[in-house]
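Hi R.,

Here's the input for the S-adenosyl-L-homocysteine complex you asked about:
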Amino acid sequence: MTDHPDDPEDLAERKMRFLFALRSRGVTDARVLTAMEKVDRGLFVRGIFAARAYEDMPLPIACGQTISQPSVVGLMTQALNVGPRDTVLEVGTGSGYQAAILAQLARRVYTVDRWRRLVREAQDIFRQLGLVNVTAMTADGSHGLPDQAPFDRIIVTAAAEDPPGPLLQQLKPGGIMVLPVGQSDAVQHLIKVTRGEKGFDYEELRQVRFVPLVEGLGNE
Ligand code: SAH
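And here is the predicted structure with S-adenosyl-L-homocysteine in place:
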């Protein structure tokens, strides 16, 4: 076996191992697995890290950010329980990988990042993939996206100390939000918030590690 990233046989084997790793880490929802099989993570990772795109690890992207670990992307997507008629908001576009997966499952996806450069690069990939149901925008996602609210599903891929109030408000009744909470240098928990008729229900899923949710826009 060669270690060359462009070798087609090697690539097929890497992708197979990638899907196996997802399953063995608890990503069992067939729709999520199919979406993750379709969206090539290799397109979202650049430079020297591209060779590691099919390994189950977070990797550096531009602007000092990271593309999340695939099994965590899978578990978050699974917990979000997205249906084909749902409108989804993602806070933290990053590479665009998570948004591209959501676009396979939802009717419409809005994704925002505080870095213009990341939004532009993600838009290029969405265009290349012909994903017409994803809209990426530069914005401080801690305020949500009031013009497009309310949302059936909200996913936050950067850690806040508490679920931001505007995001809770922009969740439809019956809606689900999945997000990491906790300080950036401490243990964070992935939580699932469900909005019921009377209030919010919180479920703790597992420990995670994400970059922090930062206020304001980046300068790149
Ligand atoms: N979901 C991404 C990974 C996200 S990394 C992927 O699939 O690749 C977390 C992202 O959240 C970073 O790009 C960071 O810039 C962004 N972020 C942090 N605070 C934010 C905020 N207040 N509003 C919008 N995006 C934010």
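One thing worth noting: Residues 8-24 form the longest helix (17 residues).

Cheers,
M.
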